[in-house]
């Protein structure tokens, strides 16, 4: 499968001995929910397979106009 629109914005937070990874991806707005879900789930599973990553969170969006830091409080 080929995806024309894909952007990843990353944040990593240390939790003593392990990391939590937040990823924000932008996909084509015409993709089905199933395809979008499968991409996000595959990305999450891949990131969580890394030994230093305890948990990964993947947020899907369909446009580039706003940034994840505008949606969530600063940590």
From TrEMBL:
One of its GO terms (molecular function) is monoatomic cation transmembrane transporter activity. This is Cation efflux protein cytoplasmic domain-containing protein. GO terms for cellular component: membrane. It comes from Caenorhabditis remanei (Caenorhabditis vulgaris). It comes from the Eukaryota. Keywords: Transport. Residues 23-61 form the Cation efflux protein cytoplasmic domain. The lineage of its organism: Eukaryota, Metazoa, Ecdysozoa, Nematoda, Chromadorea.
């Amino acid at each position: 499968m080929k995806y024309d629109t894909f952007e990843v914005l990353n944040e990593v937070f240390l939790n003593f001995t392990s990391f939590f990874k937040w990823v924000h991806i932008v996909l084509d707005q015409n993709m089905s929910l199933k395809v979008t879900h499968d991409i996000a789930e595959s990305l999450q599973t891949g990131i969580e397979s890394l030994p230093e990553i305890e948990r990964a969170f993947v947020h899907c969006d369909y446009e580039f106009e706003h940034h994840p830091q505008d949606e969530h409080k600063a940590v």
